[in-house]
Amino acid sequence: MDDYYQSTNNDSDFATDTIDDQVLSDKPRILLMGLQRSGKSSIQRVVFGKMPPNDTLYLESTTKIQKEDITRSFIDFQIWDFPGQVDFFDELAYDPQDIFGTVGALIFVIDAQDDYNDALHRLFTTVTSAYAVNPSITFEVLIHKVDGLSDDYKIDTQRDVQQRMGDALADAQMEYIHLTYYLTSIYDNSIYEAFSKIIQKLIRELPTLENLLNVLCSNSGIDKAYLFDTLTKIYIATDSSPVDMQSYELCSDMIDVCIDVECIYGPNDLSLAQTPDHIGGDALDGQQTPISLDNHENQLHPDSDSLERRLIDHQNQEQNTHSSDSEASSLIKLDNGDVLYMREVNRLLVLICLLRQDNFEKHGLIDYNFQCFKEAVTEVFEFSRKRNTQQ
Ligand SMILES: Nc1nc2c(ncn2[C@@H]2O[C@H](COP(=O)(O)OP(=O)(O)OP(=O)(O)O)[C@@H](O)[C@H]2O)c(=O)[nH]1
């Protein structure tokens, strides 16, 4: 996919806009398919529309293909939500070429809390038919609604689904069709984690971004770095050290914290320092106290050499250095001593890093390296944009 980023901002107040076919751009597509009530619309609403998961209980059944153009996001694509009750391969009214011609990923959702025999049958016909039309589609299977299941049952279900699909494809001599499986739920971060991996497959610049993140981490003493799409909280790249759910959740929670602060104080006051020892390593929600940079002296009394003092000095320097642009940044100290460091790369992307307190002492170096990283990322996308225009 060539166009998986968006270089312009759309100032619409809505994250996603349902739009008519006539005005749909030529963007690559992501299809959400699966049986009725498997959770397709809920996934779309929660991930791309910021709907609280509990509100999906009131969603009505989809009756026709819902096409949405994702705006104000780095992930520049259309997402098509299919009604579960229609089998598009039985209906002569639908031309498979129209549907699958320019698809990037086909995501098939299976309800793991229900009997999934029919779903497997539909999955088989869907992938084999779609592959016949467009072999470059990546097929992704979400074994969904696993929030109600025990860990053992989840693993057994995934193994069973994988085994049966593998057998069915082997019987049809179509083993070359590759499916990737994810255990997901809208009630935790698993759905974002799955979408991160799905979207990453569609980003042509991924290896370059990963290399840049590796260089940034190794030269700055950073333990883990994620490049997030700010709107969706999907991470589009990370360094090559293993992803652990806890660090991912902390980083993605940090985006929520910053957005909440931005909503309360306005975009120009986004930078915040964190009171010491207020944040547990695994519990951010509700415990953070944003501190205005103007009156921090009255609120914090750190001794002069403490990390808190350095965080505040750092924030002040940042504010002075970047007073002319509105680049957001934030620092949060966790009670285990680690530091979460967030910097906005552009209006659509944000870098979030996790590093140890000792390594944060070299924050001048980290800031400098971040600026180099930011310039490199901008150049990469500028290069891709030019290449796409030429093509
Ligand atoms: N427990 C649980 N329920 C979920 C999850 N995702 C969706 N649901 C529920 O599943 C029900 C059906 O969700 P929808 O999103 O309407 O399903 P759909 O696949 O779009 O259905 P159609 O539009 O009929 O094709 C809703 O009540 C959701 O709240 C999940 O991760 N866990």
TrEMBL record:
GO-annotated cellular components: endomembrane system; fungal-type vacuole membrane; Gtr1-Gtr2 GTPase complex; nucleus
A Pfam family that the UniProt record links to this protein: Gtr1_RagA
Reactions mediated catalytically: GTP + H2O = GDP + phosphate + H(+)
Alphabetized InterPro entries for the sequence: Gtr1_RagA, P-loop_NTPase, RagC/D
Protein location: Endomembrane system
Region (Disordered): 276-302
Gene3D superfamilies reported for this sequence: 3.30.450.190, P-loop containing nucleotide triphosphate hydrolases
This protein's record includes keyword Ribonucleoprotein: no
GO biological process, alphabetically ordered: cellular response to starvation; negative regulation of autophagy; positive regulation of TORC1 signaling
Keywords for this protein: GTP-binding, Hydrolase, Membrane, Nucleotide-binding
Family recorded in the similarity comment: Belongs to the GTR/RAG GTP-binding protein family.
Functional summary from the UniProt entry: GTPase involved in activation of the TORC1 signaling pathway, which promotes growth and represses autophagy in nutrient-rich conditions.
Subunit and partners: Component of the GSE complex.
The protein's name in its UniProt record: GTP-binding protein
Provenance organism: Thamnidium elegans
